[in-house]
Structure formats: C-alpha cells, structure tokens
Amino acid sequence: MRKMTHWILTLFMMFSLTQVLSANEEEVLKDHFLDKLQEVKVVVQNAKISKEKKFEDVIKILTPTFDFELMAKLSLGRKNWNALSKSDQSRFVSIYTDRMKKSYSAKLDSYNDQIIKITSVVKKKNRMFIKTYMQSGDKGLDVVYKFYKPKKPKIAKDTWLIYDVEIVGISILKADKAQFKDFLQTKSLKELMVALQEQK
Fold first, then answer.
1. What number of other Cβ atoms are within 10 A of residue 12's Cβ?
2. Intervals of the chain under pLDDT 50
3. pLDDT at residue number 80
C-alpha cells in the first residue's frame, strides 16, 4: 500500500512540475514578445532616424522571431516545394522573405501610435498562440501570433518561432497558399517566383 501511495504521489509531483514548467514557458515567451514589441516601438518613434534606417532596425529585431523558411515552404505546399531543386528552394525562401519584409515596411508608419495588448496565451504541445488586441485611435484589430518550438534550436533564432499571423481571423499563411495555388493553376513555379520578385 505504501508503495502504491508513493507511486501516486510521485506521479502527482511530476504532473505538477510539468504544469509549472509549461506555465513558466508561456510567461517567458509572453515577456520576450512584449520586449520585442517595445524595442520596435522605440525604433519607430525615433524621429532622429530615417524611415529606411527604422525599417532596417525593425527587421533586425524581428528576424530572429520569424521562421521565414518554414512559412515559405508551407505557403507553397509540399508537392510544389518538393518539385523545386535545392537551389530554387533557397531562391524561393529568399524571395518570400523579402516580400514579407517589404509588406512590413509598407505598414511601418501605422505602428507609431498603436497600442498592443496581450489578451491570452494558449499552449498546445509544441505550439503557442499569443492573442493580442491592436488598437490605433478608436479602431482595433484582433491579431494572433502563432509560434512553434523547433525540435532542434536554429542558429541565430529564438527558441519559439512565429510561423503564421492571423489578422481578424484571416491567416497570412493560408491567404498566401490560396493565392499561390490559384496562380499555379495556369502558370509555372518559375513564373510564380518572377511575379513575387516583381511585387512592390
């Protein structure tokens, strides 16, 4: 009976420890995310530097947080990704990353007066969803940042990485995937890369 009691207590302690570690991991990511946002805010509100310099500094802050390679791969779909040669895969990732950065740059001015509040942090195995409310003036948006934890740490990257962003229920990743799929109905992967490269 003692052995059974001891075994149950051990299991309970292990379960409790796992729960604490999980909660701590959520808090660590939340604090890290808030620190990143604060760094971006400081750069954007710096009136002494040019817009080009602001963009450069903001991208430097955010790049370790995003897994652009995974985003590029998922947006293209497994079949199309595997159809590319290794060199074309690298080229597509580069083009996709530049496209994402340009998109962020175009919205840089609007971040100056935004207030971002974290409404919740939800953890599901190796996924973490940070739900936020982004307010600018009297307007607001619900934005969800979707993170995953790679099995192996990636060089110059954070422990948890963003693989998708959902704005008012619309996934950037799914929107890109649908757009690319539609394009590839009538055109080739090479033509898709050219078209993405030419986007401004």
1. 10
2. 1-22
3. 96
The pLDDT value recorded for residue 66 is 95
Closest CA to 193 of 99, 82, 52, 67: 99
User: pLDDT for 134-165, tens place per residue?
Assistant: 887 788 889 999 999 999 989 999 999 999 99
Separation CA 189–CA 186 (nearest Å): 10
Q: State which residues form the domain around 102.
A: 2-198
Q: Residue 130: give its domain's CATH number.
A: 3.10.450.710
Token code pair at residue 115 = 């207030």
pLDDT at position 103: 82
**Residue type for 104, please?**
Y
* HEC secondary structure over the chain: CHHHHHHHHHHHHHHHHHHHHHHHHHHHHHHHHHHHHHHHHHHHCCCCCCHHHHHHHHHHHHHHHECHHHHHHHHHCHHHHHHCCHHHHHHHHHHHHHHHHHHHHHCHHHHCCCEEEEEEEEEECCEEEEEEEEEECCEEEEEEEEEECCCCCCCCCCCCEEEEEEECCEEHHHHHHHHHHHHCCCCCHHHHHHHHHHCC
Q: What is the number of domains present in the chain?
A: 1
Q: Sign of torsion, CA 114 171 72 193? A: negative
